[in-house]
Amino acid sequence: MTDATDWLRVVAAAVFDDAGRVLLARRPAHLHQGGLWEFPGGKVEPGESLEQALARELEEELGILPRRSRPLIRIRHAYPDRRVELDVWRVDAFSGEPHGREGQPVEWVAPEELPEREFPAANRPIVNAVRLPDRYLVTGEPAGDPRRFLARLDQALTGGVRLVQLRAKGLPEAEYLRLAGQAIECCRQHGARLLLNGPPGWVERVGADGVHLDSRRLASLGQRPLDSRYWVAASCHDARELARAEAIGCDFAVLSPVLPTASHPGAPTLGWGGFAELADAARIPVYALGGVGPADIPRAHGHYAQGIAAIRALWEPVSARS
Ligand SMILES: Nc1nc2c([nH]c(=O)n2[C@@H]2O[C@H](COP(=O)(O)OP(=O)(O)OP(=O)(O)O)[C@@H](O)[C@H]2O)c(=O)[nH]1
Ligand SMILES: [Mg+2]
């Protein structure tokens, strides 16, 4: 028996196919959390590295060998009868043909359909991590002709951005809402999601995909402002704000500043070490923001981040990049 005070170390995998679907397995009815869907995986054995445990479990349960994998999220969850530390990896290439080697049903599922499945309680943040991309664009302030702003947005989306926060603190309400409508249309054309950095009530009015709460709104809310069909994200700067974002049921957070930025010279920064400590302890996916760009994505993944969030590094016109 496991000592009740111990954390049971588990590795699990979000295995993706070339069509972007993820592989689920159904837990046998007699096991812990039986009958629910899960990401294939199992207990780490003594002396095993996480990568070794991942390769062994995927071979035992699915008959595949991971060829390209990276950390996705680490979540600790206390069930009434056991406490698990789930190290979830994203597997983007593998050899072999996956099948339920232990007789368990397996199924390829599109990420957007995951919310309809029933998972163990620990899996809510994992499902969000699977559904979220590795970069989150925060728009620069619109200035002048909105057509220039929309052209830039289109350029970022063409470059692969799939999640956008419309941040335009300087615009009056009517102009913000008009721009939001146009930005949503632009995002739709690329299959991307748009979150409003504004009052949650605006989201349904313009048909956005969710809300991004700044620190002030996060502090003022006692509960999640929108239902689970929408994304709810929050800007955090320390453990207290992250705890608040989790407590009100946010889907993910952005934690900053990781590194010094041109917009806040001399401001104290977390550094990657400080970031990793907070992101690891968080129970929701966390993006790294502040002085980081797409080139930092692998490093972010090595520090418990979902990926990077950026204004400058994702928003500059391509021609202006060196
Ligand atoms: N594999 C997997 N386990 C999960 C998930 N979510 C979750 O809470 N768990 C919990 O993590 C633990 C995983 O153990 P497991 O039963 O898969 O272990 P295993 O493959 O080594 O099984 P075995 O001990 O029967 O050989 C269980 O307590 C399970 O409830 C998930 O998505 N995937
Ligand atoms: Mg298992």
UniProtKB/TrEMBL annotation:
It is an enzyme of class 3 (hydrolase). InterPro entries: Aldolase_TIM, Mutator_MutT, MutT-like, MutY_C, Nudix_hydrolase, NUDIX_hydrolase-like_dom_sf, NUDIX_hydrolase_CS, NUDIX_hydrolase_dom. The keyword Ligase does not apply. One of its GO terms (biological process) is DNA repair. Mg(2+) binds at residues 41, 61. Keywords: DNA damage, DNA repair, DNA replication, Hydrolase, Magnesium, Metal-binding, Mutator protein. 8-oxo-dGTP binds at residues 27, 32, 38-41, 123. GO terms for molecular function: 8-oxo-7,8-dihydrodeoxyguanosine triphosphate pyrophosphatase activity; 8-oxo-7,8-dihydroguanosine triphosphate pyrophosphatase activity; 8-oxo-dGDP phosphatase activity; 8-oxo-GDP phosphatase activity; metal ion binding. Belongs to the Nudix hydrolase family. This is 8-oxo-dGTP diphosphatase. It comes from Thioalbus denitrificans.
